């Protein structure tokens, strides 16, 4: 099992510890994106839905590339949810093929740009060729300390919490964890995202105002932007504008303004 999906309880996150303190920055450190609207974008052009997914994949590169100049250290993108298996067999197969091709094609460019890639989600249902490529991309980029890109693939927030709880319960049953020590610092160490800071900003494209099971635990205090743009039309400029708007928000985390 890879590092992210098999956390060692109590491991400290050295990467986030050395980052700039939140108070010293205005832009978001971690942005998470629900890339929605590929299907509608394609259908409005009289093309099949997969055409939209291919157009959407092209936007990923531009957004990843803009992260370093915007000071976005962590980018997490929702590529395939645990609910997306309900789509037609043809669309699911087309998406899986697109992910395989994307990883193979982008591997060297991501490595050369100092991007580190991680995957979150349950790999059990993914085919072996795809999981091999995912492992390879993680391994190839694991020393990179630039943009930290996380791709959520067969990911669902409820599924993640359920899998985390199962491992936590196993640790309790084996005597490795005292139930008295379980608190809100403990559970996130079992989540797929245990090495990542919580997202500061969650963006959803295509005009839908819902979170669709994405980063449920982690987004408790995130700021949200629901924008009308369909994902294949999303640009680096719009991304920069949303990051700038985030800087003007008054984040109180349940407290009061000082
Ligand atoms: C939602 O749009 C999008 C998806 C389920 C797939 C997201 C995938 C990509 C952007 C492509 C590539 C990603 C990577 C990482 C290579 P939708 O199909 O639900 O659109 P609709 O709401 O208009 O039908």
Question: Mind sketching the topology for me?
Answer:
Layout: H1 14-17, E1 30-34, H2 38-43, H3 49-70, E2 74-81, H4 89-112, E3 116-120, H5 128-140, E4 148-155, H6 157-173, E5 201-204, E6 223-226, H7 236-247
Parallel strand pairs: 1-2, 1-5, 2-4, 3-4, 5-6
Helix pairs in contact: 3-4, 3-7, 4-5
The protein binds farnesyl diphosphate (FPP).
The site of farnesyl diphosphate has 19 residues, from α2, α3, β2 and α4.
Q: Kindly state the number of beta strands.
A: 6
In N-to-C order, the SSE pattern is: HEHHEHEHEHEEH
Classification by helices and strands: alpha/beta
* Helix-residue proportion: 25-40%
CATH H level of the domain at 27-156 and 198-243: which superfamily? Decaprenyl diphosphate synthase-like
Sheet with most strands: 6 strands, parallel
Determine Rg (CA atoms, Å).
18 Å
Q: How far apart, in Å, are the first and last alpha carbons?
A: 45 Å
Hetero groups in this structure are: farnesyl diphosphate
Mean pLDDT: 91
Strand content: 5-15%
CATH topology annotation of the domain at 27-156 and 198-243: Undecaprenyl pyrophosphate synthetase
Q: Can you tell me the CATH architecture of the domain at 27-156 and 198-243?
A: 3-Layer(aba) Sandwich
